[in-house]
Each structure stands twice: as structure tokens, then as C-alpha cells.
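Incident review: delayed structure delivery

Summary: a single-chain prediction request sat in the queue longer than the usual turnaround. Root cause was a stuck worker, restarted by the on-call engineer. No data loss occurred. The affected request and its eventual output are reproduced below so the record is complete for anyone auditing the incident later.

Affected input:
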Amino acid sequence: MKQIVLAILFIATFVVYPSQTNAISMPCSLILKPIDKSLINSKGIALIYKVQLNPPSFARTNISILAVHLPKPSSYGNYDSYEGFAFIPDEISWRFRLYPTPEGVSPTWAGRFDLITAEMRNVTVQVRLSNSKTKKLGTSILTNNIEYCK
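Output delivered after worker restart:
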């Protein structure tokens, strides 16, 4: 009888209080992979962590992106830059400009956003094409889901 009660308590513990949560532990890094598999050299990384801003306030979440070996934005049409884009489906999104380094042929694109207050669950992080004049956001070039953040 004791074994049955113990087994029921043990099973109930895992059903009522699951051991895994959907929230990520921070800081973490996320490899951004190309949508188009022919872009074998195009890669990126997103660093996600809590940041304390001045003047002192509650901690916010920062997403910093670095992307390398991306094709020229103009090769996809009327685009001249890239943006970082992160979103929680049907809830909220954040977009921020990525800036190229002065390297000539294939610059590194980097940028950050520091003001996220939402809980980081089911977030997708992307590098997307952008037209800086019209503010039009294009298709995703690199992407990954925060569940793979390590």
C-alpha cells in the first residue's frame, strides 16, 4: 500500500510541477542559421542577457546580433541594409538596425536592442533585409528560436 501511495505522489509531482520550464536561462547565445541553404558561409549569433540601464531601473533584456558573410542586401531587390528582428508570435516584436563594419567586400553586420521587458518565451530571432529609407522590412536571411539558446 505504501508503494502505491509513494508512486502516486511521485507521478503527481511531475504532472503538477513539471521540472522543465519554457523560460531560458540567461545569459545565453543563439546561433542564427541561413534560411537559404545555399548561403553556406552566412551565419550569425545572438547574445541574450539581462542588462541594467542608467539611470538605475529594473533589469531589461538585451538582444545583440552579429552576422557575417551576408549577401549584399541589394541582391534581393530594393534593400540597402539589414535589421535584427525578434518576435513572440501573436504578441510582440522588436526590430533594430544592424550596422556594417568598414570591411570592403563582405562587412560584418552588428546591432543591439536593450529595452525588452517581456518574458523571453517562444521568441524567434532573425536577421532580415531592410530598406533604411522606406523602413520596409524584407524577408528573413538568418533565423533561430530561443529554445536553442545555450
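Verification: The mean pLDDT is 87.
Action items: add queue-age alerting; document worker restart procedure.
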